[in-house]
Amino acid sequence: QQQVKQSPQSLIVQKGGISIINCAYENTAFDYFPWYQQFPGKGPALLIAIRPDVSEKKEGRFTISFNKSAKQFSLHIMDSQPGDSATYFCAADNQAGTALIFGKGTTLSVSS
Amino acid sequence: NAGVTQTPKFQVLKTGQSMTLQCAQDMNHEYMSWYRQDPGMGLRLIHYSVGAGITDQGEVPNGYNVSRSTTEDFPLRLLSAAPSQTSVYFCASSYYRANTEAFFGQGTRLTVV
């Protein structure tokens, strides 16, 4: 049973455009929602994370929007650059912090 | 600090062979975990540990064993390799629990023939 559903599977965006990746979760006990970025041949690295006490968190060009009632959260990349081309994973965990569950990933290509 | 170090980077096994994937971290993190990454499947949790001497199963534990005798090391053992275990394996560590920043190793690409 997939607990975190991520879409789209792949995304092509023009340089300077906005990239949007969406995730939905089922488990209402989840209370930690990070996004990880992975370049080919590398391990994932934390990009940005949010907890449900806020509806939005922004770090530079990256923003997480969180909708607790809809059990959805999304990553917005403003002014997308070719260097942002990577695979992005959403994830979720609960207060016990024992198991970070990942979505299936979105491959982003930013064309110049 | 080296962070999270995984060895080997690449490995080819024959069906039925056993091997151990090594993982070490030098950040004094309590929580460590193993994931496998397959195309279109994302990262799936195999086993995790919340501290030395404590391990538990994740989403896909069958065919794998782990132990955590020290804070630094968290080896993953394949008991009898099968082609279905062909994958890229990642070890990760977090300061306290999984709901804090996870630091991943570079991965081990395993092929079982």
Structure description:
The complex is a heterodimer of chains A (112) and B (113). Chain A has 112 residues and is mainly beta. Chain A is 0% helix and 57% strand. Chain A has no helices and 11 strands. In chain A, a hairpin with a 4-residue loop joins strand 7 and strand 8. Chain A is globular. Chain B is mostly beta strands and 113 residues long. Chain B is built from no helices and 11 strands. In chain B, strands 2, 4, 5, 6, 9, 10 and 11 form a 7-stranded mixed β-sheet that branches. A 4-stranded antiparallel β-sheet of chain B has the order 1-3-8-7, with no helix packed on it. In chain B, strand 4 and strand 5 form a beta hairpin. The radius of gyration of chain B is 13 Å and the shape is globular. In chain B, 39% of the residues are buried. The interface between A and B is medium-sized, with 27 and 29 residues.
- Bin the strand percentage of chain A: over 45%
The coarse overall form of chain B would be: globular
Q: Low-confidence spans of chain A: pLDDT under 50, at least 5 residues?
A: none
Q: Number of helical runs of chain A?
A: 0
H/E element order of chain B: EEEEEEEEEEE
Termini separation of chain A comes to: 38 Å
Can you summarize the main beta sheet of chain A? 6 strands, mixed
The tally of beta strands of chain B, per DSSP, is 11
- Which class best fits the helix and strand makeup of chain A? mainly beta
List segments of chain B where confidence is low: pLDDT < 50 over at least 5 consecutive residues.
none
Individual helix count of chain B: 0
Specify the structural class of chain B. Answer: mainly beta
Could you list some keywords that capture this structure?
heterodimer; A: 112 residues; mainly beta; six-stranded mixed beta sheet; five-stranded antiparallel beta sheet; 57% strand; globular; B: 113 residues; 0% helix
Summarize the model shown.
Chain A has strands at residues 4-7, 10-14, 19-25, 30-38, 45-50, 56-59, 62-67, 72-77, 86-94, 101-102, 106-111. With 112 residues, chain A is mostly beta strands.
